[in-house]
Amino acid sequence: MKSITIKGSERESVGKVATKAVRNAGAVPCVLYGGGQPVHFSAEEKEFKSLVYTPNAHTVVIDLGGKKFDAVLQDIQLHPVSDKILHIDFFQLKDDKEIIMEVPVKVTGTSPGVLLGGVLRLNTRRLKVKALPKDLPDFVEADITPLEMGNKLYVTKLASDKYKLMHPDNTVVAQVRISRAAMKAAQEAAKAAKAPAKGGKKK
């Protein structure tokens, strides 16, 4: 998985007044968990743009001057109106410990059902995976090549030896639904097949 670096500085004062001062200075208060004692730090808001405002998934290198930590974003608080970042929690990565995180779904292939007029619906755009840090994927590939009209692609078809998908087996990732146009065409074809041929003799 791709990684981005966030440069910040450790915080000594972590009370409400200090936290407010950090935000007023245009920075984001953060906490890093998972390494024993929590590490409180702050970084400029612009440092998080490529991490937060993107559909992609990334691991993070937190650079606090002389200290560097490998981590993943665990939780984020946004302002309900402005979407301004208020606080971020990170979790430290360990090479020998599995981690759970969400990654995007990438659709590949061509569905015969779509070619016949069906509509592809992506039911799940992100999936939770559990893996060692070195095995975390940038995305989970969903091949829709086998999907005929009305078929569904279940999460069990996306299994990998490198990571585990943390979803029930009946989770639908994508499906090809019959479009209104295709349904109308089928109904008209059925009516035409039942109608008597023109010029036929009545008995």
TrEMBL record:
The record's InterPro entries line, in alphabetical order, gives: Rbsml_bL25/Gln-tRNA_synth_N, Ribosomal_bL25/Gln-tRNA_synth, Ribosomal_bL25_b-dom, Ribosomal_bL25_C, Ribosomal_bL25_long, Ribosomal_L25_dom, Ribosomal_uL5_bac-type
Q: Which CDD domains match?
A: Ribosomal_L25_TL5_CTC
Q: Which GO terms describe its cellular component?
A: cytosolic large ribosomal subunit
Domain Large ribosomal subunit protein bL25 beta residue range list: 99-178
Q: Which UniProt keywords apply?
A: Ribonucleoprotein, Ribosomal protein, RNA-binding, rRNA-binding
Give the family this protein belongs to, as stated in its UniProt record.
Answer: Belongs to the bacterial ribosomal protein bL25 family. CTC subfamily.
Sorted alphabetically, which NCBIfam families does this protein's record hold? bL25_bact_ctc (TIGR00731), PRK05618.2-2 (NF004132)
Q: How does it assemble?
A: Part of the 50S ribosomal subunit; part of the 5S rRNA/L5/L18/L25 subcomplex. Contacts the 5S rRNA. Binds to the 5S rRNA independently of L5 and L18.
Instruction: From the Swiss-Prot or TrEMBL record, give the protein name.
Output: Large ribosomal subunit protein bL25
In its UniProt entry, the species of origin is given as Flavobacterium pallidum
